[in-house]
UniProtKB/TrEMBL annotation:
Highest taxon listed in the record's lineage: Eukaryota
Organism: Lupinus albus (White lupine)
Database matches in Gene3D superfamilies: Ribonuclease Inhibitor
GO cellular component: SCF ubiquitin ligase complex
GO BP field: SCF-dependent proteasomal ubiquitin-dependent protein catabolic process
Name of this chain's protein: Putative F-box domain, leucine-rich repeat domain, L domain-containing protein
Length: 213
């Protein structure tokens, strides 16, 4: 049925409109769609709630934009906030705000790779809520054992962890993770400063653990 004065897409129900917006890969396009009208704004919001995967790789993001998107992605399972060539400007303040999002407790995969603007403060706050996490990448960050202790407390289902070039973690923190995360299968220690005998001690705790160096 033709409706005079309205574009055909404006006649679509919100759910179908949201399905179309889910197909958009560019968050710039989503932001533009969101600004068209109230119905499109609602469609974008519903589309975010349908997403299981969200990655900001290759995008220039700041705390406000990242928090805004994650807060609407209620069913999110996999979240990627890696450093990009555009220099992702996520800080501890952003991680603290993201930790309050409804989806965080259901995340199974999280990447904070290369975010040099974050510290233990933000990571611990976020990790304390990720109780379903199976895969974690915090490589290239400046975290210390404090973050590792939070991981061992909060992530009993952890299977893989990437600590690539995390030069401030020590044997104490690594042993705590391996001893308490009983489902851990793989740990990437490339570029860390832990000695060879530390790897031996980790294998004593978990003989099946794959240690990548």
């Amino acid at each position: 049925m033709e409706v005079k004065g309205d574009a055909e897409i404006d006649c679509l129900p919100i759910d179908l409109l949201a399905h179309i917006f889910v197909l958009l890969k560019s968050f710039t396009d989503l932001a533009q769609a969101r600004s068209v009208c109230k119905k499109w704004k609602q469609g974008v919001k519903v589309s975010l709630a349908c997403r299981h995967n969200l990655s900001f790789g290759g995008l220039k993001m700041d705390d406000d934009s990242a928090v805004r998107l994650v807060s609407h992605a209620y069913n999110l399972k996999n979240l990627g906030i890696p450093r990009s060539r555009w220099s992702c400007q996520i800080t501890d303040a952003g991680l603290r705000r993201i930790s309050s999002a409804r989806c965080v407790s259901n995340l199974t995969s999280l990447s904070l790779w290369g975010l040099t603007g974050i510290t233990d403060e933000g990571v611990v706050q976020l990790i304390s809520r990720t109780t379903s996490l199976k895969h974690l990448n915090v490589g290239g960050t400046f975290i210390t054992d404090e973050s590792l202790f939070a991981i061992s407390r909060s992530c009993p289902n952890l299977e893989t962890i990437v600590l690539w070039s995390c030069r401030h973690v020590t044997e104490t923190g690594l042993i705590d993770v391996v001893a308490k995360c009983l489902k851990l299968k793989s740990i990437n220690l490339w570029g860390t400063r832990v000695p060879q005998d530390c790897r031996v001690n980790l294998l004593i705790l978990n003989p099946l653990l794959q240690i990548k160096v």
